Target: Tripartite tricarboxylate transporter permease
Amino acid sequence: MTDAAAVLDGFAQALQPAYLLYALLGVFLGTAVGVLPGIGPAMAVALLLPLTYDLDVTAAMIVFAGIYYGGMYGGSTTSILLNTPGESASIVTALEGNRMAKTGRGAAALATAAVGSFVAGTLGTLALTLVAPVVADWAVQLGPADYVALMVVAFVTVGALLGSSVARGLASLALGLFVGLIGTDTLTGQQRFTFGVPLLADGIDVVVVAVGVFAVGEALYVASRLRHGPIEVIPVPRGWRSWMSRSDWSRSWRPWLRGTAIGFPVGTIPAGGADVSTFLSYATEKRLARHRHEFGKGAIEGVAGPEAANNAAAAGVLVPLLTLGLPTTATAAVMIAAFQTYGIQPGPLLFENQPVLVWTLVASLYIGNLMLLVFNLPLVGLWVKVLRVPRHYLYAGILSFAALGSYALNFSTVDLVLLLGIGVVGFFMRRHGYPVAPLVVGMILGPMAEEQVRRTLAISQGDLTALVTSPFAATAYGLLAVLLGLALWARRRERQASAREMAMSG
Model:
């Protein structure tokens, strides 16, 4: 059971004026990057990584968590007003939300998205508070072979489910594993894949890779696909009376709760995160809704449920991240990189070694959720203005910050060359449908998996069967096969449903 004293101490820390400002900064930046098409929380966190070294680790994590939660909310604004999802998890919101906006009900769509995000985010954070300590206590008992099994599960599911195809996802993962091996072998002291470059003996900094693929590569890709001319944003009526009617509240509260119940458990497992949960929520609401005939024409349930699932999944993603050190989304992978830059390894011992950090971070999530609700509805006009920022200024700024931040890591021009090269690789990966998240996950978890494999083989005196014969490892591999089959089936259903909806809208 959660230590109530530790939770209260976390709130006492998070309510300090400095940490409140960092939480506000995080949710504000997160909403801004979520609003802008093509810029997600993963890029924002990666871009800010080099710029937060002067902050203490608690402040930095509060900012990053605020960006994550804010980005989940901000994507709904773009989907509803522009029909251009800023994140893949917001695709479903665009199906009904944009139709509501076209019929003059954009304010109601934005309101149900905001309130649903608050409800789901708060309930998801409560579940995180209750579940995470239990998982951490259990994870302490795992052996090296069990950790290898967990990492294999993360490798296969992230590689197979993030991207347009399994082969491309696994290819991206393999590239990440290779990059993670560059440097000096800690056991033998031999250099690996350094190609005679002394500066690569310490390996490639994960921050350079994260900034390269998420900031530089994504900025180049989005800039190459920019539309010319002004962006047409559907106007939103002013005044609280235009937000939600009594009927809208009545039709939204059940989808909020159902979306939360779907999103949180899906987020805790490496099965596609918010993307899968939003499609499952949309399919559920379409099947259960009393006003089923409105789906495809602007049903508010089709906005309320997926937006709740989206934010609940974000809370669920933090469970394996904090308790096992396993990232299941792109943003979670970058957040693990952020922990590592401070010399902290997320995992079961994090709750024992850094309890103040963990519970202050969790408390800041509650506070950040409230900030999102209080500030975002009145600031819809501001976000509409953000959408009109000239894109060439925006992406020029992103590239400049990426270069300055990467150079500040070691004050080395080699890092700038690596940043450019990795950014170009990231650009071509995005252009040809190769997901970049598995690359970062492979780079972060690859060295950890190698270390655990060596420990297992050292304990078993070289017996390879030790990797699969422990009860937990055998169970994990069996569940992996089932999970992968179900997730791929669900993805196929999502694509079919999305194709049908697009065909109906066309």
About this structure: The chain has a mean pLDDT of 81. The two ends are 52 Å apart (CA to CA).
